[in-house]
Amino acid sequence: MYTALKRDNEAADQVAEDVAAKRACRKVQSRGEALKRRRSSMNQFLYTVPYLPVAGQKPQQATGFFDNNGGLDYHIPVRAPNASGSAANNLGALTAMPLVHTPLKAVEMAPIAKVGGMGDVVTALGRAVQEEGHSVECIIPKYDSINYSQVEQLRQEGGFAFGGTNVRVWKGIVDGLPTTFLEPENGHFWRGCIYGRNDDSVRFGFFCGAALQYLKTYNVQPSIIHCHDWPSAPVAWGDRMGAKCIFTIHN
Question: In this structure, are residues 125 and 90 in contact, taking their beta carbons and an 8 Å threshold?
Answer without folding.
Answer: no
